[in-house]
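Purpose: get a first structural picture of the assembly so the mutagenesis plan has something to point at.
Setup: two entries, given in the order below. No constraints added.
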Amino acid sequence: MSALGPSAQARPTAALLRRLLIDVERIRRVEERIAELYAEQEMRCPVHLCIGQEAASAGVSAALEVHDTAVSGHRAHGHYLAKGGDLNAMIAEIYGKATGCASGRGGSMHLIDLKCGFLGSTPIVGGTVPVGVGAAYAMRLRGERSISVVYLGDAAVEEGVFHESLNFAALKQLPVLFVCENNLYSVYTRLDDRQPARPLHRLAAAHGIPALVEDGNDAVAVYERAAELVDKVRGGAGPAFLELPTYRWREHCGPNYDQELGYRPDAEYADWKKLCPVERLRERCLREGVVDAAELKALQERLEAEIDEAFRRAKQAAYPEPGPSPVYAGNDPDE
Amino acid sequence: MSERTLTFAQAILEATDQCLAADPSVILIGEGVPDPKGIFGTTSGLRDKYGPSRVSDMPVSENGLTGILVGAALRGLRPILTHQRVDFSILSFDQLFNNASKWHAMFGGRASVPLTVRMIIGQGWGQGAQHAQNLHAVFSHVPGLKVVMPATPADAKGLLISAVRDPNPVVFIEHRWLHGVSGPVPEGGAAVPLGQARVARQGKDVTLVASSWMTLQAQRVAGWLETMGVQAEVVDLRTLSPLDAETVLGSVRKTGRVLVMDLGWRHCGYAAEVLARIAETLHGQLRAAPARLTLPDEPAPSSPALARAYYPSARRMLGEALAAAQHPHARDESSWPEPVRAELARLEALPADVPDLSFKGPF
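Result (structure tokens, whole complex):
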């Protein structure tokens, strides 16, 4: 990660493109495998797949360093994986196994991997927005050079806590990057049924936070824009906000397509599918010679093997022993 | 020496000061923290001593700040958040209940939230429905929160030190009327452990279970009971969650009679939980029906005339305690000793909406 540098501003290097390609291919394949096996009913928790939205996770994470932190919401698989979260632990968590990243106490909606700075994801809309701001507050008070990334969706800006958090982040000029994936729908409800006709990112601008929009289905563009903002945030310029318009392909929650329900226009859906973030990056990498067809195939096979192994381990792993939950943390040893 | 006397408010200030001095990761934030009045004197001077980055005011965003301090706690700080009234914390229930209380359990113990949230119960002087709520039962209902309600200055200091050092979120509730009460407070940084009740007075005939301001009322009632031949044991819970059931049950096992004197509402209230623990464990050993004294199930009124009727009077406390103790004169006030009746009459001639005559309002 450090070889790429968080501030690679000019033409993206082959190494960067390759990294982005691996991330979007990997996230897509993990999500598709979950969808494929969900009917077995062994993954007995809600899953919110990010198929169609992989570019945001890959692009933003490529601009971060390992000590930077991230928090997220219900649709967090991509954010977790791209930040470096352990795949085996995530799949085991979805299977409710003791080897899961939350020891089977969280499920798909509660991912955590502190080794890579993934502080946690939770499904109350907007619930981790202040948590990410608080991490940035601690970084500031402790004099760290890390930054905090808050992933949120378009509905989170409707929550009061979003505005409370942005107000504080701007007031204290905290090192936090808000990344808002605007996929136009909250479950079945369109954005224009929930918010007035004004650019979403300008809510952040109204809080005095620099706010930009970037193509959320172009991993390279996301990376470049995120890197520019991360540089500023890390340099002490205060918080920044990046809106990434994108589109969820499958149902809000679950493994299926649900276009037959009719809540999203067919033409809109078709237009967005043409902007597949994986396909676009694949084509670019082939076109620019980052990979050739054989290398791409080998890469895909390697990812499939890694995913096979993660699911094999998860299925074989033991369930946690039933018993009291670790409700309280133990006291410090010095007490 | 350890017999030095401080007010409850001074004890909180001293505990906070010592926590800030001992650990650079401790921060203090809340509406009014650096104000000239310093949250009833509990935060006075701390901003000057520790600087504005560690001792600060906050935007009027209770939920947002609670979540922000959850995040700060996850990243290595030990924040103390203050609310000038319990009632404002209701705005933060999302972050307190969904995040702070559950973070440790729902992530399989991989992280915890060392956050202390101070809140103050208002009573009297017309505080009314949204400035005088007693919500300790609500907080105690949520697994993962610890709930502390000290009664004495020494416990206020020692329990606050423990709360700040604790790796879990702790709701630290202060009754406004306690802030001016004085008592001996040790000078050092000795912590009083969370989760341990205190037998404030020993007795064999009836157990009075109380916490916070109600502990002082129970001790006064116990003094009157003694003149009527009843030896009351007063158990000051100090920590409501986790509840030190051992101490409560140990006392009731001995006395066989109990009155739970609680500051809160009756329905699904904290007293109900204490009585349930007693009933399910000591059913066959009770010598009288276990009883509770609570607020009526209605919001606090503002008018002093209405508030006098809303809060249990000293006369009623004594009557309920006598009844719980199966005293033959429980319902016959004319048989109560003359000094007790005189004292009750004296109290009833005083305003009921202030803790004492030195209290001039407005808060």
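Chain B has a mean pLDDT of 96.
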